Amino acid sequence: MVKKLKEIASKQSSLVFTDQLIFSGSNFLLTFLLARKLSISDFGFFSCVLLVTYFLVGICNAVIVQPFQISAAKEFSRKSLGFVFQAVLLLIFIFALLLFAAKFLPISAIEFFKRNLSAVILFTTAYIFQDFVRKILLTLDHIQILLFIDCIFLAVFPFIWVEESLSLFKSLYIIGIINFIATIPGIIYFIKNSDFSLKNNSLFRYHFKEGKWLLSASVVQWFSNNFFTLVAGIYLGTNALGALRLVQSFFGIINIILQTVENYYLPKTALLHYQNKGQEKKELLKNMSKGMAVLGVLIAGFFIFSEPIITFLGGQKYHQYGFVIRLISVLYIVILYGYPTRIAIRILEQNKVFFIGYCISFMFSLLSFHFLLKYFELYGAVSGLVINQVLMVVYWKILLNKKNISVWA
Q1: Which residues are listed as membrane-spanning (predicted)?
Q2: Residue 202 class from Cβ within 10 Å (0-12 exposed, 13-18 middle, 19+ buried)?
Q3: How many CB atoms are closer than 10 A to CB 351?
Q4: Minimum mean pLDDT among 129-133, 235-239, 377-381: which range?
Q5: Residue-level pLDDT at 94
Q6: Residue 56: how many CB atoms within 10 A of its CB?
Q7: Distance CA 279, CA 211 (A)
Q8: What angle do CA 33, 36, 37 make, to 5 degrees?
Q9: How far, in Å, CA of 390 to CA of 385, rounded?
Q10: Helix, strand or coil for residue 194?
Q11: Average pLDDT, stretch 78-107?
Q12: What is the pLDDT, as a whole number, of residue 5?
């Protein structure tokens, strides 16, 4: 029995699951700890910094990480590993310069950013670099190094916990420094296993060719997903943004489950679809529908017990924002409804349709955000996110019907 457990634990899939569990779990817990330790306005500012960081991470993924993942799957080389390492250092330096240049913009809304500039730059660059290291090591199947990085990052909790008067500045500095320290095992791996050169014309052309389209999709998808959240901070203040981000972080649990479902069902369904196994596909859809129903019940529970949940997550100061959990619950019910369509679009390789769906969603955000936020505040922000999802799913369904193609039929 013990031997069997050791075999299971040593399997690469088990290590990947463990890494994801530690990484996602530590980020969730860190978010809730910060929500409790920081004031609502400081947590809102932290959420602003995090949203901007996600945007920069998306750019890094599009032009460096994702092209490397494709090329490494075909043929790994020490030179390509050295190239992406050099490229990410250059990109991070450019990001740092841009963040520093933002200090001179005459915009009163980013005054907090100017006051905490050094901490923001440290946090952002460390986060981007750690994300890059994690994804490259995962691509190359070095999960043991990832687990080591995960364990080092856990040191952030005692530092945050024991800090009596935690401020935004201190929290960004602590997280940034520990993120950089955590990447040291990855840096050592890169130095030992890379060939560094300044003559990388072919690799540069490859990353430019593949990355420019991935970058376009990444930017549109980020704005489609985060535009209402970011503008809510400008229109409604950092308190409202902090509450909205706290709830979105809590629903990240559902995101992980949905991502797992997609990673499991998408390849299985694709295999059955291209093998013309209709009955097996229907059985798979039935099982997936049951899983979605269970998630629906869980989300309904969040809706009913919204006030105790928000108080538990952020403390009594968030009690008035219980309605945000109810609103986000409605959003996730819509997401669940559209998930089979999303999977179908991916399986049928309708990438253009997938991209245009996000473009339509973003265009609606641009046209409606002022009206929704001015007159309906947080209700308007979440309603905009709901309508975005509805527009995408309806467009995808119409196009699939128009082309007379289906996965589930």
Answers
A1: 21-38, 44-68, 80-105, 117-133, 145-161, 173-192, 213-236, 242-266, 287-306, 318-339, 351-372, 378-396
A2: exposed
A3: 12
A4: 235-239
A5: 96
A6: 21
A7: 39
A8: 85
A9: 9
A10: coil
A11: 89
A12: 43
Q: What residues have CB less than 8 Å from 324, skipping those under 6 apart?
A: 243, 244, 247, 306, 310, 378, 382
Of the listed ranges 203-212, 234-243, 244-253, 301-310, the one predicted with least confidence: 203-212
What burial letters (b/e) apply to 174-201, b meaning 16+ CB within 10 Å?
bbbbbbbbbbebbeebbeeebeeeeebe
- The domain locations on the chain are 11-231, 251-402
Q: Report whether 160 contacts 166 (CB < 8 A).
A: yes
CA 45 centroid distance within chain: 18
Q: Alpha-carbon distance 160 to 126, whole Å?
A: 17
- Give percent helix, percent strand, percent coil of the chain, each to the nearest 5: 90, 0, 10
Instruction: Say whether 393 sits in a helix, a strand or coil.
Output: helix
Q: Which residues of 124-159 are buried (b: 16+ CB within 10 A; e: fewer)?
A: bbbbbbbbbbbbbbbbbebbebbbbbbebbeebeeb
Amino acid at 266: L
Check the CA dihedral 109-112-117-121 and report its sign. Answer: negative
Q: How far is CA 165 from CA 51, 158, 159, in A?
A: 24, 14, 12
pLDDT in tens, 31-71: 999 999 999 989 988 988 998 999 999 899 888 888 887 77
pLDDT band at 267 (very low <50, low <70, confident <90, very high): low
Tell me the one-letter amino acid at 100. F
| pTM score | 0.81
**Do the Cβ atoms of 335 and 389 come closer than 8 Å?**
yes
Nearest by Cα to 246 from 311, 300, 174: 311
User: DSSP state, 321?
Assistant: G
- The string of pLDDT tens digits covering residues 125-170 is 999 999 999 989 988 888 899 999 999 999 999 999 998 889 989 9
Residue with tokens 């080389």: 77
Residue 165 has a pLDDT of 86
Question: What one-character DSSP code corresponds to residue 349?
Answer: T
- In whole angstroms, give the CA distance from residue 282 to residue 407: 10
| Per-residue exposure over 10-31, b if at least 16 CB sit within 10 Å of its own CB, e if not | eeeeebeeebbebbeebeeebb
The amino acid at residue 122 is L
Is the pLDDT score of 304 beyond 80? yes
